[in-house]
Design a protein that fits this description.
alpha/beta, Hypothetical Protein Ychn, Chain: A, 5-stranded parallel β-sheet, 4 helices, 5 strands, globular, DsrEFH-like, Sulphur_relay_DsrE/F-like
């Protein structure tokens, strides 16, 4: 049985190390063949918008835009519905392949029999 990993990142530029760790774990899991779903909540919601990940820098860390591309190539990326609404982000604003969804979808993914969930 193939395992799945749901990663919820709540930090953005306000906590760059925590944000980078979440993206790194998700990208490494995708590279390892794990089914990954990365949830962008709080300030990380901005990274679902084109160009925002490229603005993120953290010394000694992989570029966030590269990590996001790797995750999108082999996993799912979701911006939280309420987080998007609070920031004026709509479906027309997000990167191709990024969806906007709410808590019900998160709970379904996190509670799947083969799922492991991490929150950063």
């Amino acid at each position: 049985m193939k395992r799945s990993l749901v990663v919820k990142v709540t930090a953005g530029l306000d906590a760059p190390e925590r944000c980078s760790q979440a993206f790194t774990v998700a990208a490494v899991a995708v590279a390892g063949g794990v089914d990954v779903s990365l949830w962008l909540t709080g300030e990380s919601a901005w990274f679902g918008v084109p160009g925002r990940a490229a603005e993120f820098t953290l010394p000694e860390a992989a570029p966030l835009s590269d990590l996001l591309d790797a995750i999108l190539a082999g996993g799912k990326v979701t911006v939280c519905t309420q987080c998007a609404a609070r920031r004026g982000i709509t479906g027309a604003d997000v990167i191709e392949g990024v969806r906007i969804a709410g808590a019900q979808v998160f709970v379904q993914e996190a509670m799947a029999d083969d799922a492991q969930a991490l929150v950063y």
